[in-house]
């Protein structure tokens, strides 16, 4: 979650911005649906809290859309941008004190922690779903209260981490694309390593990249941290198998990945030190927009990581999840604001401006021009169709966030991959630590 | 006329009886209390209350966003069986001990050198303060680059320029390399404080003592041993106490460079408390880790205070 440190390297190009302003929205297919009646209260003003931008357009387009809302409704809106790591504590303060922002665009789990303090979103979510081709799998998971059909939040976008690799180096190793199975993937990495182009995945205390890589390892082998009931179930043959696989894969890594934070893979990839890693779309744009690295971007391919059981995509996605607190004096204005931001006239320019960094939660936006502007981006289009989530396969709770922040899964893989622990010891330690949070 | 004067009305000044407030303010005990009130208030609000709250939280299962209930020693019990916590305790003690010894050894040496008559003395002193003045996070980021696995300048010089090694050093990826790298960064940052403080102490020692010793034919080692060391001891103990406290509670260097990695081998108690308490949301457990630092800190303070400052020879006696 602290990809914030990479912000310096991000600057989305004018190309993406231009696409945002010229009629991209025409392409979004819309179904018939009547917007819920939400008469805006007299004299309403709103405060909105959201995470700070990671790509420039995220803030500029978001602010433009907000200004449009003010122009059309007369509702003054103040948008505050909080650091990614500060957002969770700030949401907690708003929830506990019953004061502060009306709308919080928080992280995936947060609305579920404060479910009883939030306005019901069912009507609005149903409307948006009908109009824009339905909600994708992950937003459904995180929008609805666990085990019910009641919506408590509106997922706004998710950022995933597919495989990013050098096309020519993969070819040199005998592969035209990234294999969809684990064995093939390992062989690809081994081949590239032999040619002097090692892979590199963060195994250090990197909240974003570390958890992305290690959750993929776990889920794609059929492992899970907890079962459906929220009981710790990490100590399974599947997990052991994934740890053995991690040990093999680690041999193809560049040295030093145990110390890698969220930024190291970007740097090493941009410098041509590694030939394969996992990342959000932002890295591709920063390579493409810098003349010195444009050639690397040209040679960069982006594909799914090997899939999980039954061919399911098993990548970690970080979701933006908007909620309205019951303590808001202007509930209708808050909901109207969110509806306005999710409508194609506003949402599509935002999606496009960010270059797909926050991938859409509503199926119809799959037709957005951003996904056609560069065929390489296609893999990011399906980000939110993933059926795995942080804390899979248990109910969404505060515990999954704690497990991620304490790097329980990351350190299990780091210990086993580097050979500091046997897979059995590593998984027992992770089990003990996970139990501490899921009690 | 005279009659009238003798029969004058007795001068009976009617002094207004002092008001309740005036009498209260005349009361010395009350006045002392009143004057202390702002200071006591500040201490209570900004020191006692947070400390008390921290200790209370350590005995609850509070999460961020959800209140907690009193759980007794549950947090501490769980920490007792937590390898990560014991790793952090070990590394905190190791980090503090090694860094302090190095800082004092090198700092004292530097102070002795600077106490000699060297040209451009004040300029050199100013330069020496640099590591101490630079914000810790900035120097941490500089070290982070120097210790980078792929782009380290140290590795670059050793491998590509001098050719002494064939592979880059994995400074932060192997536990002991990472531990020593952080100690090095801390020592670099801490030496100026020690050196400048000890230099101030050295300059209070009267030169006549050295002259007398010279006349008696004392060697330079004897002069150091019998004059410098004992007279420097009081300030040494103060500086040592501060230095130990700063090092033990260090946070920024470790958090900015390794975040406690690889696999928790460089977690300090402070960084672990933060990681569990704030991003991890387990305020109760984070507070318990922070509270666990208190006994160590008291012990360290008592040690440096009693071991160094309360010697009989400082009062003219002998304790040998």
UniProtKB/TrEMBL annotation, chain B:
Residues 89-304 form the ABC transmembrane type-1 domain. It is found in: Cell membrane. It comes from Muricoccus vinaceus. The keyword Cell membrane applies. Pfam families: BPD_transp_1. It is a multi-pass membrane protein. Keywords: Cell membrane, Membrane, Transmembrane, Transmembrane helix, Transport. Belongs to the binding-protein-dependent transport system permease family. The keyword Membrane applies. This is Carbohydrate ABC transporter permease. The chain crosses the membrane at residues 29-49, 88-114, 126-147, 190-210, 231-249, 287-308.
């Amino acid at each position: 979650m602290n990809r914030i440190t990479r912000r310096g390297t991000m600057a989305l190009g004018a190309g993406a911005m231009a696409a945002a302003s010229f009629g991209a929205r025409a392409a979004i297919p819309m179904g018939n649906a009547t917007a819920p009646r939400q008469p805006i209260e007299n004299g309403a003003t709103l405060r909105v809290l959201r995470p700070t931008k990671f790509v420039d357009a995220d803030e500029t387009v978001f602010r433009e859309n907000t200004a449009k809302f003010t122009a059309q409704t007369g509702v003054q809106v103040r948008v505050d941008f909080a650091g990614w790591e500060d957002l969770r504590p700030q949401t907690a303060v708003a929830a506990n004190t019953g004061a502060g922002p009306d709308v919080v665009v928080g992280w995936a789990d947060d609305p579920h922690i404060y479910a009883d303090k939030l306005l019901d979103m069912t009507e609005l979510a149903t409307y948006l779903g009908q109009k824009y081709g339905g909600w994708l799998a992950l937003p459904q998971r995180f929008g609805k209260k666990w085990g019910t059909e009641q919506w408590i939040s509106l997922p706004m976008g998710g950022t995933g981490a597919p495989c990013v690799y050098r096309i020519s180096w993969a070819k040199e190793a005998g592969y035209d694309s990234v294999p969809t199975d684990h064995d093939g993937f390992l062989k690809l990495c081994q081949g590239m390593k032999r040619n002097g182009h090692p892979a590199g995945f963060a195994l250090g205390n990197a909240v974003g990249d570390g958890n992305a890589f290690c959750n993929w390892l776990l889920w794609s082998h059929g492992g899970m941290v907890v079962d459906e009931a929220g009981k710790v179930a990490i100590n399974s043959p599947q997990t052991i198998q994934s740890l053995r696989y991690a040990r093999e894969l680690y041999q193809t890594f560049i040295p030093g990945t145990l110390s890698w934070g969220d930024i190291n893979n970007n740097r090493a990839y941009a410098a041509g030190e590694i030939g394969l890693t996992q990342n959000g779309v932002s890295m591709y744009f920063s390579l493409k927009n810098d003349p010195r690295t444009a050639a690397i971007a040209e040679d960069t391919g982006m594909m799914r990581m090997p899939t999980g059981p039954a061919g399911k995509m098993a990548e970690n996605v970080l979701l933006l999840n908007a909620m309205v607190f019951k303590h808001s004096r202007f509930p209708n204005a808050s909901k109207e604001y969110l509806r306005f931001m999710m409508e194609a006239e506003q949402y599509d320019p935002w999606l496009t401006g960010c270059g797909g960094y926050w991938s859409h939660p509503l199926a119809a936006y799959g037709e957005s021009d951003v996904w056609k502007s560069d065929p390489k981006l296609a893999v990011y289009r399906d980000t939110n169709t993933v059926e795995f989530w942080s804390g899979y396969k248990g109910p969404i709770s505060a515990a999954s966030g704690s497990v991620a922040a304490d790097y329980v899964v990351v350190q299990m893989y780091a210990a086993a991959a580097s050979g500091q622990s046997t897979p059995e010891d590593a998984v027992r330690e992770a089990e003990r630590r996970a139990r501490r949070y899921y009690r | 006329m005279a009659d009238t004067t003798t029969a004058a009305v007795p001068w009976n000044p009617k002094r207004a009886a002092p008001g309740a407030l005036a009498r209260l303010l005349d009361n010395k005990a009350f006045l002392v209390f009143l004057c202390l009130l702002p200071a006591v208030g500040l201490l209570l609000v900004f020191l006692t209350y947070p400390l008390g709250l921290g200790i209370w939280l350590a005995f609850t299962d509070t999460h961020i966003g959800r209140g907690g209930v009193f759980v007794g020693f549950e947090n501490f019990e769980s920490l007792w069986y937590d390898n990560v916590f014991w790793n952090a305790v070990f590394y905190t003690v190791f980090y503090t001990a090694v860094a302090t010894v190095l800082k004092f050894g090198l700092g004292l040496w530097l102070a002795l050198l600077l106490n000699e008559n060297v040209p451009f003395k004040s300029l050199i002193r100013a330069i020496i303060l640099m590591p101490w003045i630079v914000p810790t996070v900035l120097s941490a980021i500089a070290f982070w680059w120097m210790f980078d696995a792929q782009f380290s300048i140290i590795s670059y010089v050793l491998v590509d320029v001098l050719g002494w090694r064939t592979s880059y050093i994995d400074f932060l990826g192997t536990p002991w390399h990472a531990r020593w790298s952080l100690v090095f960064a801390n020592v670099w940052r801490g030496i100026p404080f020690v050196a400048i403080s000890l230099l101030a102490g050295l300059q209070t020692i009267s030169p006549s003592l050295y002259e007398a010793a010279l006349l008696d034919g004392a060697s330079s080692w004897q002069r150091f041993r019998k004059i410098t060391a004992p007279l420097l001891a009081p300030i040494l103990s103060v500086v040592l106490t501060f230095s130990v406290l700063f090092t033990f509670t260090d946070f920024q260097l470790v958090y900015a460079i390794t975040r406690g990695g690889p696999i928790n081998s460089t977690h300090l108690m402070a960084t672990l408390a933060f990681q569990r308490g704030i991003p991890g949301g387990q305020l109760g457990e984070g507070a318990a880790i922070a509270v666990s630092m208190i006994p160590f800190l008291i012990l360290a303070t008592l040690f440096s205070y009693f071991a160094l400052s309360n010697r009989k020879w400082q009062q003219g006696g002998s304790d040998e």
